[in-house]
Amino acid sequence: MAYLTRRPGTYFLRLLLLPLTILLIIRCTTHYRIEDPVFGWYNWIRGLMALAAAAKVTHFAVVSQGTLKIGEERLGCSKKTPYGSAATSGELPHYRWLSACIVDAFEVSIAARGIGWKFAEGVHIPGPRRPSERSAYLRHTFISVLRTYLLVDVFDSFLETLPGITVNSGTIFFPSLPIPARYLVSTALHLGTGIVVILGLEMWYDIASLVGVGLVQQPPVIWPPMHDRPWHARSLHEFWSRQWHQLLRDTFLVMGGYPGNWIAGDLGLLLGTFLASGLFHEIGLYLGGAPIDPKVLIFFLAQAVGILAEKFYKSFTGKRVGGWIGFVWVAMFVLGLGQLCTDSWVARGAGGRVLVPPALSPARRILLPAVRYIWLRLSD
């Protein structure tokens, strides 16, 4: 489908192939699974990837003119490459061993944020934070992958040691603790989970960039940071549209934003996008074997309500939400209401299911045994 969306005169063929492609994605996702519940995360990830793939092929199929790069008026009439500023620097990737049509298909299929493509024109791209020279970028990124891997491994291993955390159940609200301590602990665990999500996504993004820059000879400039700085957000709109990663922006627009906009204009676009985000997380977990929990949908729809409140505030006062009040506002929705999500996922076994396989886990093989040994020696 990625190949066809870059070829003129293929619109009806793409529409014809769309149902078959969706059915193939469903079959590959639901008919094959890892049976060991300890590795349930990988089934959940497969479910999320299936939904993202279904949204992408739907987008490829239904756009009659095909998927255009910025600067193209029609397929085959390009004024720019999809690499933005890299195009003017002369630092373009070399694909001498691949035909142009295959390169096109490869580029559009991996363009999660759509950098340089019309479907994502205007999306926020964080500024560079790594060297632009190739060897320095590769060295810096490789070190980042190792550091991130170790941090994710430590937190993943730590969750397993908490009381009541299993592959089938658990909670971040420990009833044995008094109320102030209970919510301090739950907030810390929720914040840690959010940091691990950021680090885990960035680790895989960095691995992909090592392949792109190191093997395919792409310029580092086309691999900007995945996240900006979520902790700098002073409104929900800023948090979700700029500071948080935009990898799934097009997925949520295709699944809910565009249909919502067709039904109810801008309001439908907003509500549909966040409804799609909630359904994406829940259906992905369901495809991985977890039951549906409406608390996750409540959290994501609450974000849309919060953004609507910000719009009303601006319409009445003429000012945007910002400053320390904006920071508290974001924290209330993300750190406060967000605990509904984390507790829901832990209750369905996320805390007891491994992200890092035990055989490849330095924390499980070295760190935790060492801590236990030292603790026992000190207790004697």
Query: Residue-averaged pLDDT, rounded?
Result: 88
Gross geometry? globular
Task: Show unreliable segments.
Answer: 84-92
Distance linking N and C termini: 65 Å
The DSSP helix count reads: 12
* SS content category: mainly alpha
Total DSSP E strands: 0
Taken in chain order, the helices and strands follow as HHHHHHHHHHHH
Largest sheet entry: none
Give the helix proportion (percent range). Answer: 55-70%
- Give the amount of beta strand, in percent: under 5%
Query: Cα-atom Rg, whole angstroms?
Result: 22 Å
Concise synopsis of the structure shown:
It is built from twelve helices and no strands. By secondary structure, the protein is mainly α. It is globular and about 75 Å long.
Structural overview:
Helices cover 62% and strands 0% of the residues. The protein contains twelve helices and no strands. α2 (40-62) packs antiparallel against α8. The chain is globular, with a radius of gyration of 22 Å. The chain starts with 10 loop residues before the first helix and ends with a helix. Residues 84-92 have low confidence and may be disordered.
What is this structure's SSE topology?
Layout: H1 11-30, H2 40-62, H3 86-89, H4 100-110, H5 134-160, H6 179-215, H7 236-243, H8 249-287, H9 294-317, H10 323-336, H11 338-347, H12 362-379
Q: Which descriptors apply to this entry?
A:
mainly alpha, 380 residues
